[in-house]
Amino acid sequence: MSQVFNFSAGPAMIYPEVLAQAQAELTNWLGQGVSVMEVSHRGKLFMELIKQAEADIRELYRIPDNYRVLFLQGGARGQFAAIPMNLIGKKGKALYLNSGHWSATAAKEARNFAEIDEINIVHNDNGISRIGSLDFSDIAENYDYVHYCPNETISGVEINEIPNVGNGVLVADMSSNVLSRHIDISKFGVIYAGAQKNLGPAGILLLIIRDDLIGHARQATPSIWNYAVQRDADSMINTPPTFAWYLCSLVFKHILSIGGLDVIAQRNAVKAQTLYDYIDSSKLYRNNVAKENRSIMNVTFVTGDPELDAQFVAEATAAGLQALKGHKVLGGMRASIYNAMPLAGVEALIEFMKAFEAKHAK
């Protein structure tokens, strides 16, 4: 295969156009004769960059004026602790909706800081994972917030319906499906997302938070995790990951240039449906998620034979189809087809799958 396609779950591929621009500007950013990595984060040019990056993400996501956009460090795991430190208030507890590994991990971390109730919303229906009811309007206001992960990268389960929390505060870890389509930001109190899947490189995190939820951090909250402190410091109480921020800004501009999230959503739908249609027609591969809950970002599949799965991954890698090994928790295969993955990559994967099936299907 002449072209390599990277199906990594994260850090994931970045648009080639963005990488080409970064490469061209690497040693001479904006005609300054130096790299963006070498300029002051508080200098005029970099401050203009972050201002434009916020304007672009606001335009892409149609973020209301009463929401603040922060670019933070520590990844989503950092927010597993920061969320309860900032949001646990008079009610003293939070509700976590468990849909898989990452939502469960977030709940485990939050227990270090508050009382946590947990509800399992994924049900096993004859070996098929299916999301249950998402109406929590009768109990949500008993909690300071309700937390969920709309896309579980490991199991390939995606929650397309926004949970109903009535007048409660909904918090979402969108690390693996951020900017994959339009969402109604006003339904959420907080959205956070690690950059390394759809936004840019690892090392920076996007946080979108409603204004009224800032300023209530417990006294012991470290300043780097305190949303009010970060808001007042333009997300820069310490030196930020400037190159990661710069690359995110290029990604935002690129998405806007190709038509925004309407175009992204249409492309993602086509890629995912094309791959799932083949898997469903196959005699060798199967996906174990209900159709209405299949992730458009992380497509999981197995042959039913762990040794054959390992052979598939090895041969696919040799053919230029990288990082298809499933997570160690579940095994099998996982094709992560985030925003930057072209349809050509999915089509190349399907051609390989067909050839492999022809040799091994019984």
TrEMBL record:
By what name is this protein known?
Answer: Phosphoserine aminotransferase
Is this entry keyworded Nucleotide-binding?
A: no
Against Gene3D superfamilies, the record matches this protein to: Aspartate Aminotransferase, domain 1, Type I PLP-dependent aspartate aminotransferase-like (Major domain)
Question: Can you tell me which family this protein belongs to?
Answer: Belongs to the class-V pyridoxal-phosphate-dependent aminotransferase family. SerC subfamily.
Q: Which organism is it from?
A: Haemophilus pittmaniae
Specify where it is mainly localized.
cytoplasm
Q: State whether it acts alone or in a complex, and with which partners, per the record.
A: Homodimer.
Return the InterPro entries for the record: Aminotrans_V_dom (IPR000192), Pser_aminoTfrase (IPR022278), PyrdxlP-dep_Trfase (IPR015424), PyrdxlP-dep_Trfase_major (IPR015421), PyrdxlP-dep_Trfase_small (IPR015422)
What keywords are annotated for this sequence in UniProt?
A: Amino-acid biosynthesis, Aminotransferase, Cytoplasm, Pyridoxal phosphate, Pyridoxine biosynthesis, Serine biosynthesis, Transferase
Q: Which NCBIfam families match?
A: PRK05355.1 (NF003764), serC_1 (TIGR01364)
Which residues get modified to N6-(pyridoxal phosphate)lysine? K197
Q: What pathway does the annotation place this protein in? A: Cofactor biosynthesis; pyridoxine 5'-phosphate biosynthesis; pyridoxine 5'-phosphate from D-erythrose 4-phosphate: step 3/5; Amino-acid biosynthesis; L-serine biosynthesis; L-serine from 3-phospho-D-glycerate: step 2/3
Gene name of this polypeptide: serC
Positions that bind pyridoxal 5'-phosphate:
A76, R77, W102, T153, D173, Q196, N238, T239
Aminotransferase class V domain ranges (all copies): 4-349
